[in-house]
Amino acid sequence: MQIEERVVNEVTILDLKGKITLGEGDEALKDKINSLILQDRKRLLLNLEGVPYIDSAGLGEIVRTYTTVSRQGGQLKLVNLTKRITDLLSITKLLTVFETFESESEALASFK
Q1: At 16, which helix (H) or strand (E)?
Q2: Which of 25-29, 47-51, 66-70, 71-75 is least confident?
Q3: From CA 56, how far away is CA 39, in angstroms rounded?
Q4: Among 52, 58, 89, 111, which is least packed by CB within 10 angstroms?
Q5: Which residues contact 18 (CB under 8 A, 6 or more apart)?
Q6: How far apart, in whole angstroms, are the C-alpha atoms of residue 31 and residue 93?
Q7: What confidence category does residue 25 fall into, taking pLDDT thresholds of 50, 70 and 90?
Q8: Is pLDDT at 59 greater than 90 in this prediction?
Q9: Is residue 1 within 8 Å of 24, Cβ to Cβ?
């Protein structure tokens, strides 16, 4: 999995590309998030447009990321979910936990 980082209006956007699965994307995401939190960057937006598949380990990592960021007083939001990922979050009832957005501009406007 590849992670591209950019900052817009003090929000760090992570453009994820590739599968988030056990041993492939979960560790990369964990390392990236830990590094951002150490830099006191806690307003995060995960762009999942380039993510075709998330397994249970990947989903667990996104939940862990959300918990970690929230505990630090930050915010984590998701944007550009594919139908498959939306269905996955719906089935697992996580759609009620995460703030999700159709467009990046909408998501950025939601950060306070």
Answers
A1: strand 11-17
A2: 25-29
A3: 28
A4: 52
A5: 1, 2, 24, 25, 50, 51, 52
A6: 26
A7: confident
A8: yes
A9: yes
Whether 56 contacts 64, CB under 8 Å: no
Residue 108 contacts residue 9 (beta carbons within 8 Å): yes
What sign has the CA pseudo-torsion 66, 67, 69, 73?
Answer: positive
Q: What is the pLDDT of residue 56?
A: 92
Question: Average pLDDT for residues 82-101, to the nearest whole number?
Answer: 95
Whether the pLDDT of residue 93 is over 80: the answer is: yes
The string of DSSP letters for 68-111 reads: HHHHTT-EEEEES--HHHHHHHHHTTGGGTSEEESSHHHHHHH-
* pLDDT, mean over the chain: 94
Paired sense of beta strands 11-17 and 43-50, if any: parallel
Question: Which pLDDT score, from 0 to 100, does residue 105 have?
Answer: 96
- DSSP state for residue 17 in the 8-state scheme: E
**Torsion on CA atoms 28, 30, 31, 37, rounded to nearest 10:** 140
